[in-house]
Amino acid sequence: MDIYEWANQLEQSGLGEWLRSTVRAIPVINSLHVIGLVLVFGTISVVDLRLLGIPSTRRSFKLLAGELLKWTWLAFALAVVTGFLMFTANATTFYDNTQFRIKMVLLVLAGINMLVFELITVRSVHQWDKDQPVPVSAKVAGLLSLVLWMGVIVFGRWVGYTKGAHIDVQSIDFNAINSPFF
Amino acid sequence: MRDFADWLSTTDLSLYIQENNAWFIPGIQSLHIIAIGVLMASILLVNLRILGWVSRDQSLLQTTERYAPWMWGALVVLAVSGVLMIVGEPVRELLALSFWVKMSLLAIGIIVAIAFQISLRRHASAWETSLVSRGRIRSAAVITFLVWCGVAIMGRMIAFDGPFWGSLSPSNLI
User: Fold this and answer.
1) Could you say which residues from 25 to 44 on chain B have a Cβ atom under 8 Å away from some Cβ of chain A?
2) Would the pTM of this model clear 0.90, i.e. be above it?
3) Are B68 and B47 in contact (CB under 8 A)?
4) Region A63-72 average pLDDT
5) CA-nearest residue of chain A to B86?
């Protein structure tokens, strides 16, 4: 299926129309997206740091990951729903945006990293669950997760400054009130 | 405030940020968001511990000592990156109602955090045994987290101050 055509139909839908014409819709959705994404990054980074032995290996990894990742998923659901709504409002613009595409690729890579960790690396967790050095493969997964999620944040923020691709960024007065960039 | 913002926008540092705005502002905002993640997760996890939903194998004091340094560290990064954003775009920040609502909520959040951490150290055993089960303390844990969510939401709303606040936004008066 032609993705551009799908994006175009999504954008032209009643929902897309409503999101664009309701003045406060995108601001509220955008700020809830921030709440979702900061909690995804914040909670997952505690798990990632534990894999890297920070602050220590004294707490059971299984226990820590089990209780934290529930909140990561909940926050991720909020970020996906709000992200989809923002996408719907201007789907073709996002589709054409390079930074947005890179962000999506980084999200997929973070997902693959998680799958490899959950399906393969974590099988040996009984050997390093607590008070034991974490194996290199698990440390790499933790480090990759941190880097990829930071990349998602950087490119996500960058989208807000590039999605009006027809506007020359250098000519924008960022200090102006109601600058078109957000 | 308008005069102050206009003066600030003529300072060397502000001019430097404005000249490099294509990467400086998004870059500093990204750092700001990463630090918000560290801050919000730290607060969430201590507050969830008060509710008894996480870290039940750890005391409240242990949990707080685990996350509080990250919270204060993140706040330092947020203050520095936040000041740079104000210096870089003083009119956009200082003439936004969202900015001042954010600062007010931030003050509440910081005062509550300091009071909580002092009280916890002074009355550790009372906190562990009885205070965490008190309805008012548990409500305060939820409300405090919502206040911090408000800080983040109002921060994002600076970019939409006019559309969001309508006639209340100073940017609509100019």
Assistant:
1) 25-27, 29-30, 33-34, 36-42, 44
2) yes
3) no
4) 97
5) A175
